[in-house]
């Protein structure tokens, strides 16, 4: 290996280690070597065998090298304006919730235009392993789900389950099907400590108890326990609310859920359950009344609504590349605060009259952006539960703020780790200062320049980095982009159709 390659590989290893939050000493312990050896590796002063590279990649859960197909990388030729129009795809988070909810139904569920993303693929692998038959019906992404009379939970694909946080949403449906079962620990994005205790608060009233040992959630259900009073969620989380709703859907009685999330994926779940005959009052509010059914056996056809986070991703790409772009089928009721903030910052855009999504409920618009001179907002930008600015849309404002004149304070009060990933924009020439684990100060305007770097391990910051590379002068390389494929379908190809120049490649 040449010194140049050793140095570049060392930088990748260093970045992957830091993203995992490890010191050199911690990595050395896992590799059974010394801290000084790790230091030499990261400085490019140590020859490396393929075996050692593979071991490092496995230790860091970052596909630096692979002796098989290898990790997927993106090479981005930046500085190109986008043009044309693009449709927003269906909601990733609604799709995974509906896959879990299909376990409530003994009949056939057909979901329309499901996003064919890695998160969905992992859940389908889990469902197939326990006996559920799933069939892609066409290239449009229509998916048929037929459950067996009896689930084979002992055959669950633990590796697939461990790679998705959505597996936690099996608790609500399964507690009505099994007296005892096990689930692997929930995986997914590296966003800091995410306790399952709020889920337990929501599900204990249905008789569920869970012990976490040996990498498994061990669940027991006491059928004598049923909700005797309203369930008050201690966290207004989306998946917590979905778990509570799914548990209530098969409870033969009326369940009141308070402090519920009214977010887009929760609403899609409620609309689906309505087709199953489960009446839910208060959809779109923080107080839900679920009229459950002990037995559900319905053949149902449902089209989840479009994804507001993908819409925000495309909107951000248009803004930072100073492009005139039309984003069709944007779910405006879940973007109204974001659009209001962007208007305050000086965004020039048009929006069409509203029309309904295929589910007949969700309001959509077409948005057309024009190149704009943005300025920093007067107040900080922070997320709030719906109808506030969406938590998953917050990271995109880091890239937007970097192109605006002035200083923008971004406060991510939920996740204790995610804000630090926004400082990756500094590698592209940004000026992002981490004030504490939850806050960053972004100073603009920024003239991004190309670089090579590891993909952040959290989905939205990873896409923010890709978008900044699209605006950067020169060529950039974003390495190991599996996390982007978890949440977006063919993102690079779709951006290329608008005029971007993004090449997908693997190492030899």
TrEMBL record:
It catalyses: phosphoenolpyruvate + UDP-N-acetyl-alpha-D-glucosamine = UDP-N-acetyl-3-O-(1-carboxyvinyl)-alpha-D-glucosamine + phosphate. The keyword Ubl conjugation does not apply. One of its GO terms (molecular function) is UDP-N-acetylglucosamine 1-carboxyvinyltransferase activity. Keywords: Cell cycle, Cell division, Cell shape, Cell wall biogenesis/degradation, Cytoplasm, Peptidoglycan synthesis, Transferase. Cell wall formation. Adds enolpyruvyl to UDP-N-acetylglucosamine. This is UDP-N-acetylglucosamine 1-carboxyvinyltransferase. The keyword Cytoplasm applies. It comes from Kribbella solani.
């Amino acid at each position: 290996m040449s010194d140049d390659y050793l140095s570049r590989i060392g930088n990748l290893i260093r970045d992957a280690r830091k993203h995992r939050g490890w010191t050199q000493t911690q990595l050395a312990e896992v590799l059974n070597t010394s801290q000084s050896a790790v230091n030499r590796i990261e400085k490019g002063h140590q020859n490396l065998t393929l075996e050692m590279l593979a071991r490092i990649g496995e230790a860091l859960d970052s596909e630096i090298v692979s002796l098989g197909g290898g990790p997927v990388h993106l090479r981005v030729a930046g500085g190109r304006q986008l043009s044309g129009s693009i449709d927003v795809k269906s909601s990733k988070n609604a799709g995974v919730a509906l896959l879990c909810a299909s376990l409530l139904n003994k009949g056939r569920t057909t979901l329309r235009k499901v996003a064919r993303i890695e998160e969905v693929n992992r859940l389908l692998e889990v469902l197939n392993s326990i006996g559920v038959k799933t069939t892609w019906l066409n290239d449009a992404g229509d998916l048929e789900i037929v459950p067996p009379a009896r689930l084979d939970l002992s055959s669950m694909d633990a590796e697939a389950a461990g790679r998705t946080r959505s597996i936690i949403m099996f608790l609500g449906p399964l507690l009505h099907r099994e007296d005892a079962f096990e689930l692997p620990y929930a995986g997914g994005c590296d966003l800091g400590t995410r306790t399952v205790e709020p889920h337990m608060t929501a599900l204990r009233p249905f008789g569920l108890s869970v012990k976490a040992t040996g990498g498994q959630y061990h669940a027991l259900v006491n059928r004598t326990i049923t909700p005797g009073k309203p369930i008050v969620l201690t966290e207004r989380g989306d998946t917590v609310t979905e778990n509570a709703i799914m548990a209530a859907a098969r409870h033969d009685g009326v369940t009141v859920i308070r402090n519920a999330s009214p977010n887009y994926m929760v609403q899609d779940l409620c609309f689906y359950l309505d087709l199953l005959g489960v009446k839910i009052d208060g959809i779109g509010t923080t107080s839900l009344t679920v009229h459950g059914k002990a037995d559900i056996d319905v053949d149902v056809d449902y089209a989840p609504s479009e994804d507001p986070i993908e819409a925000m991703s495309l909107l951000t790409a248009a803004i930072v590349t100073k492009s005139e772009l039309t984003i069709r089928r944007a779910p405006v009721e879940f973007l109204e605060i974001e659009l209001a903030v962007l208007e305050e910052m000086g965004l020039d855009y048009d929006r069409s009259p509203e029309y309904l999504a295929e589910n007949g409920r969700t309001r959509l618009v077409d948005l057309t952006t024009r190149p704009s001179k943005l300025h920093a907002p007067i107040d900080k930008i922070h997320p709030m539960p719906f109808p506030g600015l969406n938590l998953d849309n917050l990271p995109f404002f880091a890239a937007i703020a970097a192109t605006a004149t002035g200083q923008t304070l971004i406060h991510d009060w939920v996740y204790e780790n995610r804000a630090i990933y926004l400082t990756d924009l500094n590698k592209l020439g940004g000026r992002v200062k981490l004030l504490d684990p939850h806050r960053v100060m972004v100073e603009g305007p920024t003239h991004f320049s190309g670089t090579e770097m590891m993909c952040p391990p959290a989905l939205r910051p990873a896409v923010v980095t890709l978008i900044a590379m699209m605006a950067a002068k020169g060529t950039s390389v974003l390495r190991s982009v599996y996390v982007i494929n978890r949440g977006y379908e063919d993102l690079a190809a779709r951006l290329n159709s608008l005029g971007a120049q993004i090449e997908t490649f693997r190492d030899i």
